[in-house]
Amino acid sequence: MNYLAHLHLGGQRPSQLLGSLYGDFVKGLLPGRFAPEIEAAIRLHRRIDAFTDAHPLIKRAVSRFPQGRRRYAGIVLDVFFDHCLGRDWERYADVPLDVFTGNVYRVLADEPELPERLALIAPRMAAQDWLGSYRDFEVVGDALAGISRRLSRPEGLAGAMQELRGLYQPLSEDFSEFYPQVQAFAQAALADGRDSTAGSTAPNNAT
């Protein structure tokens, strides 16, 4: 999952939106580094990534790529699935995409202590509407080009867009089958978090 999907899955309170994004920018141990709700959202981000990586549908999607691409296929799928989510947003969300992304950009603008790399890109993310632009398939190529520049072997993503064009329909079907399952996983995790918080703050009536 990439930026848009994590933001959609991780809860809609400001701290949850921040933590959902921080998961791509913050590594290592968490306790005490951020507010508890932000840390909980980062942990959920990591759980969603683990759920996704281990899922049979994702393994099937990766197997659609040529053997030489599969080392980088997870990166390609992350970005392509954000395209699928943006394209089919109304199937999975209760508010319009522009309303959702506008709220995310406001939350980022109001936060004075973003992680360093996120602080650098957040203004461009908003000005260029990175999240909403995933609806356009050609933006996937731009995103992959940007990612490739941060890789130790940028050639690992060379030609990926051409492969995506050929795999567009089967990978779209993989997404439509997988996304409701990761939604259910995330919603259950959020509910568990609410229940455990309520339990920890409930009065102890035992005598």
Could you explain the architecture of this structure?
With 207 residues, this protein is mainly alpha-helical. The chain has one domain (3-187). Helices cover 72% and strands 0% of the residues. The protein has eleven helices and no strands. The protein has helices at residues 3-9, 14-22, 36-54, 56-63, 70-87, 89-92, 97-110, 116-127, 130-133, 137-148, 160-201. Helix 4 packs antiparallel against helix 11, helix 5 packs antiparallel against helix 10 (137-148) and helix 7 crosses helix 8. The longest helix is centred in the C-terminal third of the chain and has 42 residues, at 160-201. The chain is globular. The termini are far apart.
Topology:
Layout: H1 3-9, H2 14-22, H3 36-54, H4 56-63, H5 70-87, H6 89-92, H7 97-110, H8 116-127, H9 130-133, H10 137-148, H11 160-201
- So what's the oligomer here? single chain
Largest beta-sheet details? none
What is the CA-based Rg, rounded? 18 Å
Secondary-structure-based class equals mainly alpha
Uncertain regions: pLDDT < 50 for 5+ in a row? 197-207
Order of helices and strands: HHHHHHHHHHH
Q: What's the short version?
A:
With 207 residues, the chain is an all-alpha fold. Helix content is 72%, strand content 0%.
Entry keywords:
207 residues, mainly alpha, globular, disordered C terminus
